[in-house]
Fold this sequence. Notes:
The protein is of the alpha/beta class. Helices cover 33% and strands 18% of the residues.
Amino acid sequence: MAIPDMSAARPLADRFGRQVTYLRLSVTDRCDLRCRYCMAEKMEFLPRREVLSLEEMRDIAEAFIARGVRRIRLTGGEPLVRRGVTGLARMIGRHLESGMLDELTMTTNATRLADHAAELADSGIRRVNVSLDTRHAETFRHITRWGDLDRTLEGIAAARAAGLRVKINMVALRGLNDSEIVPMMRWCASEGHDLTLIETMPLGQVEGDRQDRYLPLDAVQRELEDRFTLIPLIERTGGPARYWRIEELGLRLGLITPLTNNFCAGCNRVRVTASGKIYMCLGHDDHLDLKSALRTGGREALDGLLDEAMALKPERHQFAIHAAEPAVKRHMSVTGG
Ligand code: SAM
Ligand code: SF4
């Protein structure tokens, strides 16, 4: 269905003049893995009745598109454990054809990608971000607690076969995968994938100490500069990633450094959870309930709440990895990566 274009008259802009053009929509908080930096082994997930239906998710996505959001990422939890998620991608993907949306992407652990890659490509998705912190089967099992590396690699291969571009997300973990960074760069270059390295963020309680595994990427960048030619790319995405081209490998490398570099001044995004809560900043607990607005007042109430959300978007996050408590209590899997 066509949606009204209100982006010029009523763009989503916050108190600091930043325009929100990017939405991360978490379709489930559940996951079939338990990556140690992301989740505790035993997790309490949302009761199903609290989770938005796929149609409600579509309505929310469309309310954002009508107000000028140009890029949407489906995430989670693991988006592909949500039954019918490819149908949601198809419903949102229609707005790519009409020109109201520039890009629809998905972040996935790829355990189920082999079964869904073709449908995702068909919905209009052109690129998937796949989490792959290591290419050693044992380390992979350790980090994910029970994941099977071969399955993830099969998922990645299926994505490429379906014509999807792949960006690998690798969380840098001191003493676990730091020695694999350069081999991962070489592998991605040879496979034609982009690579993004991510600093661990203090979100949600996990067993073990995240601080012990925290690897500041500014140090990694300096080491890479000794070995390779890093050409900075001007492209910014409005998020914490900065990009380089590694001349010797022909690799596009991103570094996500929320802790060593503050990126908030150019922030262009908000996040919506699977239960319809809008978070204006990954590093703050403030949120509003889009689900109740939609269920009680329909699309008009939803639209009004987007303005309230904009008025509440904070200027910056307050992450600190060395604090005793996580910066925010909810896990990354709730708000989506
Ligand atoms: N399950 C999907 C996946 O793993 O790609 C999508 C959701 S996951 C929360 C999205 C991204 O967030 C992944 O790349 C994951 O590695 C990253 N992530 C999760 N917890 C994190 C944390 N505490 N700090 C930094 N990155 C984290
Ligand atoms: Fe699941 Fe992704 Fe979190 Fe790993 S990082 S536990 S795959 S949501």
